[in-house]
Amino acid sequence: MPEFFYKGIDQAGRNENGSLEASSEKLAFDTLSSRGITVFELSERSLETETKTSWLLRDIQFGSARLPPGEQANVAELLASLFRAKLAATEIIRIVASTTHHAEVRRHFERTGQRVADGVQFSYAFAAENRSFSLLFVSFLKVGDTANTAPLLLDSLAEHLRTQSATDRKITSALVYPMILVLAAIALTMVVVFFLAPSLEPIFLAAGQQTPTILSACLRVGDFLSNYWLHSLLTTIAFVFSVIALVQSPALKTYFRTARFRLPLVGPMARDALIVQLCVATRLLLLSGEPLLAALRGAVAAMGDNDRISEAFSEASEALEQGVSAASAFRAYPELPGVFLELFEVGETTNTLPDALNSIREVLSAQTEVRAQRLLSLITPVLTLVLGLGIGTLIYAIMGAVLEINEIAF
């Protein structure tokens, strides 16, 4: 059945866009109109037209459209309880939409409910309307729906998301003080540029003395920002838009996914974090009754396959298909840490792979947290030193100018 991509406005005046399966364009339009959506763009979507669309013509998204991990964990826990109660899909959707305090979650389940009312299976309707939940969430929901293990998977997923949310909060709180330092340095610099430097300049001019170099530089910066503030603002906005557009291009996204592992300090953390997520996905799929081959492929499908780590998991699934152990395929990838290779091989050999994957998760999560804490503990003193040197140089120059004024006076 053809799939149509639409853009429109709902009855509350909010933008709505997504896809809809219908036998004809007219039927798609009528279905959307019955949902209270005023359609202003409707076109049949295919893989060919999607790949031909220039990234410059796609919607530019600011920030992440994903819900915070903590909010996703709340939904996962609620869904687990409702699935455990063996309620109908329509009743589950109604309860979640009516009890959530998050507007995007409510809208998501309302759209999902409309698809379910049209006869689509809940997990596939959820995936078709998904804009806010992680791919891991959607993948587990599909597997749980098929294997009747949704409560178990969603409970485990909620626990994983809670841990991720706690880590995010730690990082955010650790970055608060450095951000305060940066803002304070910017504010102090603006005071010097716009108030202090212009107040000192007339004294040197009246005495026929040359304005000190740094004081003169501050004056030029202040004059430029005062005379061309609109041009500077528009240039900054244009630069930000250009960077956002470039970062969202598929080619750069693929490059960054690969290059991030080669970055100093943060590269190993990014690698271990991805391995942890793939291990969690693989373990939960194994616990749901999936064979290892399907679990590895499901984990890659949930996390994406545009980097070397995901490629290793794909190669391992292909090795299993050819009758070779997955551990032997993993050893061909030097990017994988030794603890992963050893524990995975032990788990595969002794048929205790879920326990081995959990051990890998614990070890790598602990290492990542230690590395993150060390990096964050270095940011504050290094930033304090750099800003202190800059501000100290500026103050030294201003004090030197003040002393010169005293010499002129006497």
From TrEMBL:
It is found in: Cell membrane. It is a multi-pass membrane protein. Keywords: Cell membrane, Membrane, Transmembrane, Transmembrane helix. Coiled coil: none annotated. The keyword Metal-binding does not apply. It comes from the Bacteria. Residues 77-198, 285-399 form the Type II secretion system protein GspF domain. The chain crosses the membrane at residues 174-197, 228-247, 375-399. The keyword Cell membrane applies. InterPro entries: GspF/PilC (IPR003004), T2SS_GspF_dom (IPR018076), T2SS_GspF_sf (IPR042094). This is Type II secretion system F family protein. It comes from Thalassococcus lentus. The lineage of its organism: Bacteria, Pseudomonadati, Pseudomonadota, Alphaproteobacteria, Rhodobacterales.
